[in-house]
Structure formats: C-alpha cells, structure tokens
Amino acid sequence: MSNSLKANNISVGYGNGNILNDVSIHIPENKISVILGSNGSGKSTLLKTFCRLLTPNEGTITLNDTSLKCINSKKIAKTIGLLPQNLTAPEGIKVAELVSRGRYPHRKFLSPLSADDYKAINEAMCAMKITELADRSIDELSGGQRQRVFIALALAQETDILFLDEPTTYLDIAYQIEILDLLKELNQTKKTTIVMVLHDINLSSKYGDYIFAMKNGHLLKEGTPNEVITSENIKEIYGIESVVVSDPLSGSPFIIPASSHDTVQ
Amino acid sequence: MSKLKPYYIYIIGILILALSIVISITYGVKSVGLSDVVDAILNRNIDAYNVSVVQARIPRTLFGLVAGASLSISGVLMQSVTRNPIADPSILGVNTGASLFIVFGIAFFNIQSKLSYVGLAFVGGMITAILVYKLASSGYSGPTPIKLAIAGAATSIALSSIINIILMPNSNVMTTYRFWQIGSIGGASYEDILLIMPITIASIIVSLLLSENLNILLLSDEAAISLGLNLNRTRLIAAFCGVFLCATTTALAGPISFVGLMVPHFIRLVIGSNHIHLIICSGLYGSSILILSDVLGRILGRPGELESGIMTALIGAPVFVFIIRKAKVQSL
Q1: Residue B269 touches partner A, C-beta closer than 8 Å
Q2: What pLDDT does A224 receive?
Q3: Could A82 and B226 be called an inter-chain contact, meaning their C-beta atoms sit closer than 8 Å?
Q4: CB-nearest partner of A101 from B1, B216, B272
Q5: CB-CB: which of A75, A89, A109 is closest to B219?
Q6: Tell me, what's the ipTM?
Q7: What residue of B is the nearest CA neighbor of A92?
Q8: pLDDT at A244
Q9: What are phi and psi of B136, to 5 degrees?
Q10: Is the Cβ–Cβ distance between B74 and B204 less than 8 Å?
Q11: pLDDT at residue B41 greater than cutoff 80
C-alpha cells in the first residue's frame, strides 16, 4: 500500500506572477526521483508546494486522491517528510534530542516519548550512522554530520515519502556521496519514496530512478535518466552544448559540458 | 557543553527561591528576626512593630515572586516566537507601549482601577510588540537581533516622548504616574495580586501546554510546517500569553526591564532549550532574581529604597551587552 502523491495542474506564485504554470506530476512510488532545472526554473517552488510551504493558486496537490487541504496537517506529516534547505537548530541542543523532534506528528498531547518513539529515533540515528554522536551538541559537528542529523530528524518522522531540498549543497564530494548512498540504502530497505532537488546532473542520473526536468515554470521532460539526460534535452533545459557518455561505474548517462575554450575537437 | 540534569536545576532553584523569600521578609531598612516572621504568619502579637513590618513585606515578596516569574516566562515566549535571543518585554517596547496606554487612560479617561490598567497594558503592549516586530522585519534580512533591538529602542523612545507630552502639562496625572511608573514591586497589595493571579496562572499553564509546539517552532518555519505544526496558531497563542504576563506585571509595578532577557538566557545555557524545563526554571529563577533585586534596592537605597526596576536595569544592562555580542551579530 504505497501512497500516491500527485500535483494536478498546479500554478504557484508569489503575488501576481506565477512561478509554476499548469504543472501536473505523479510522484513515482518507492522510487528516487530528482527534480532538475536551471536557477529560477521553479524546481524548488515545486518541491515547496508538495510540502505545503506554498499553496497553489490553481490546481491541487492530492495524496491518495484527497486534496492536502482536506487532510489534518499532523496526519499529512505522518506521510510526507521534508529536509528543508535552510536548517536551524537551537543552540547547544543534543543530537538525540534534535532527532526526537521528528516524532512530533506521532506524539499524543502531553505524553512523554513512547517506546515506539524511541525505536524510531534509534533506527533513524542508526540509518544515518550517527548513533555514537547521540550525546554530542549539534554545534560541535561538521557540515556532513549536521546534515545527517537533520536527515535523521526527517527519518524519525517515519514517512513513506521524503522530500529533500538540495541535501548536498555546501558539502564536499565525499559527504555528497555519503549522503546519497545513505538515501539510496533507505529507499532500498524501507521502500521510502524519495524526491529531491539536486544541482548536479551526473549525481542525479547516478542515483535517480526518475528525473523531472523543469524550465520556466513548466515540466519540460520526465522519465528515466536514460530518457531525460541526452545532449538535446540538456541544451533545451540549460541552454548549453554537452556530450553525454556512459558512467563507467553505474552505466548511467554522464554529461560533459562543452566550453568555448575546449581545444580537442 | 554538557548540560546539568534538570532535576538538580529544579532543586537548586527551589532552594534559592526559598532563601530569597526569607531574606526579602527579614532584611531591609528595619531587619527583623525569624520569630517575628512566625508571629506574623500565625497572626500572633499583631501589635508589635516588627510583626507589622513583616506583614507589610509579605505582599511585596509575593508580588515579586509572581512578577519575576511572569516577566521571565514572557521573555521565553517572546524569544521563541521571534526566534530571536534578545526579544524580551522591554526590548520589544511592550513595557513602554503598555505604559503609554495606561497614561492615556489616567490622563484622558481618569481611569483609576487596577483591572483597567491591566486591560490597557495588554492592548498597548500587544500593539507595540506587533509594530516593533514588523518594523524590524522590513528590509532584506528579516528581523535580525540587531534590527529588533534598534526598532525596539527607537519605538520605546518615541512612545516615551509621547508619554512626556501627555504628562508635562498635567501635574495631577504626573503624580499618579510617578508612583506607578518607576517599576517598584513595593506598592502591591493582596487585592492587586489576587486580581492578576487568574490571568497569570492561566497564561503560564497555556505556555506549558504549548511547550512541545514551541520546541518544534524553534527548528525553522519549513521544518515546523512539514512536521505538521500549526505555525500561526502556536505563534499567536504564545504571543498572547507573553504579552499578558508582561502586561499584568507592568500594570501593577510599571516597567521592569531586563528580567525577561537575562533569566531565560542563562537558564538556556544550563538546561538547554526544551521548553517545558525552560519555562518552569525561568519562572523559578526569575522570581528569585526579582525578589533579590528588590532586597538589594532596599539595602543600597537606605534610608529610602531603590526601586527593583532600577536594580534589574543596573544588573541587566551589562548582561544585554554580553548577549548581543554573543548572538551572531548580523548586519553590523
């Protein structure tokens, strides 16, 4: 029983102008999807609309064919989780306590953490390999460790669908691979549906099962990495020339952007 | 930094509070012995001078307890609602706004009852809090600690000058105002305390019930929404409680500054930011701080006394400088 999440002809914007225009998307269940697009293409707006941070001016987001507006917000929070781009934590808070905040939608009013809560918190910390950091203060951690703590917070929420807004930004390549590997593991072991916005096309095609390519507030292309990551599509999405080769390790498409200073023809 | 167990902080807090209460009742211009205190409580020997001294000190001590807790918890709530470490009733101008409305009431409507003071203080405080917050939120980077402090200071000065404009030509109002404004907990009577108790207790209970929501609120709007928190409702209720707690105190004692700023800050350092502990401990220690400030004012101000509002400002100003330096100073 997977949850089906859809955007039905949504238009979203701040003030007058719409950033997203008439977008319809069905999030593939139990898969990793990546939303790609140039800056200002509306990819973050799309993700925020799915996560209720923005409300569509037209159209609806539906979960199992019921509009999100008609579902209790804590109930939605048991199904849809988010790792936002900007993360803040109270000064000096301990890792385990921060992760325990993810249990909020599951907890009853005024009751202490239950056995289920502790189990979910421990599993989330285990999955993100931060169990040994449990008693450390968040301020002492490195960027990669912090990011894992915040993902663990979202995992403790135990949602079937997890959105991540640029989870690898500001991290070096080692941490990027570490985080994406952990997410892939999560997707394979728990069948969690993962949807993320990434900037790196090659990492998107390496880890993504499905790609949504956005341009100027429209959904331009969607499909598997092999279908979407072609040099014609890259030209259309980003306006650059490129050569697409096969990643020798994963077999997924790998793009090499062309520069006007390239010397080999 | 490792945090002490909340358990110890509670016990130490209760001990300090008990000690403060004893000191407040026995020390002062006229020091009395414990036997007089026992007599006063048991209503024995009520004609003796020392016993009547004690009986006069009990309401001010009780009010110090209520006011200190109210101001500190008000500070916790305002800091969490704005996610800003320097938000507090005096920084946000809530005290001055409350004062202005009360002066307005005294000067133009000849309002005398303490209950009307509380109402006026609440309305004035709420309007000022919203105004200052909106002012600090304008511009690109949102309400940073520095912008909030500047907006609050500017608004406070503007409102104070309006208070002066109303008061200057009006010596009767000036007299009424002077006794109210200085921030003294000495003038409170049992009736006053009974009057504000229901509002105070209700606000504190609601704040405690809200503590888990406030924990989530501190994460960021985006995280809070995706965890299913009703952001605006939480903010609104917390802001109402915060302004109520500050307004009741201000209505009876005049503006007492900095208690709401420094107490939660230090409690957070030792106990962390779990609101259930933060609120209770800020209340406990806030009471002690205000009662002790009052005692100190009585000792330093001999043969008269220095108002507790002046004492908290003296202690609080350096703490404020310390906090604002420590808060990641943005846009300076």
Answers
A1: yes
A2: 95
A3: yes
A4: B216
A5: A89
A6: 0.89
A7: B272
A8: 93
A9: -70, -25
A10: no
A11: no
Cα–Cα dist A173/A179, whole Å: 10
Residue A243 domain-assigned (yes or no): no
Hey, what are B84's tokens?
């800003």
Q: How far apart are CA B324 and CA B305, in angstroms?
A: 31
State the nearest Cα–Cα gap between B261 and chain A, in angstroms: 16
CATH number given to B63-283+301-326: 1.10.3470.10
Residue B174 burial class via C-beta count within 10 angstroms: exposed 0-12, middle 13-18, buried 19 and up: middle
Amino acid at B187: G
Amino acid found at B81: V
Write out residues in chain A with pLDDT < 50, as ranges.
none
Determine the pLDDT at residue B46. Answer: 64
Which pair of tokens denotes residue B316?
């609080």
* Location of structure tokens 């569509």: A56
Closest listed residue to residue A170, CA positions, set A133, A130, A200: A200
Q: Is A139 contained in some domain?
A: yes
Structure tokens at B107: 């000067």
Q: For residue B220, which amino acid is it?
A: S
pLDDT for B173 beyond 80: no
| Structural domain span for residue A103 | 88-158
CB contact under 8 A, B212 and A107: yes
Domain count, chain A: 1
Tokens encoding A119: 């189990």
- Residue to substitute from A63, A91, A139, interface B, most B β-carbons within 10 A: A91
| Residue appearing with tokens 């230090």 | B266
Residue A253 forms part of a structural domain: no
Map chain A to HEC letters: CCCCEEEEEEEECCCCCCCEEEEEEECCCCCEEEEEECCCCCHHHHHHHHCCCCCCCEEEEEECCEEHHHCCHHHHHCCEEEECCCCCCCCCCEHHHHHHHHHHHHCCCCCCCCHHHHHHHHHHHHHCCCHHHCCCEHHHCCHHHHHHHHHHHHHHCCCCEEEEECCCCCCCHHHHHHHHHHHHHHHHHHCCEEEEECCCHHHHHHHCCEEEEEECCEEEEEECHHHHCCHHHHHHHHCCCEEEEECCCCCCEEEEECCCCCCCC
Q: Taking 90 as the threshold, does the pLDDT of residue B2 lie above it?
A: no
pLDDT digits (tens, 9 = 90+) for B225-283: 999 998 888 888 998 899 889 888 888 887 787 888 889 988 888 888 889 999 999 99
Q: Between B83, B209, B273, which is nearest A93 by CB?
A: B273
**Whose CA is closest to A4, among A27, A33, A34, A35?**
A27
Which chain A residue has its CA at the smallest distance from B208's CA?
Answer: A110
Instruction: Provide the β-strand partners of residue A67.
Output: A62
Three-class DSSP category at B38: helix
Better pLDDT: B323 or B289: B289
CB-nearest to B219 from A88, A110, A163 is A88
Neighbours of A263 (CB within 10 A): 5
Q: What is the DSSP letter of B2?
A: P
Domains in chain B: boundaries: 63-283+301-326
Partner-chain contact B222 A75, CB within 8 Å: no
d(CA A96, CA A52): 27
Q: Residue ranges of the alpha helices (H) in B168-301?
A: 171-181, 190-209, 211-217, 221-226, 231-253, 259-271, 275-300
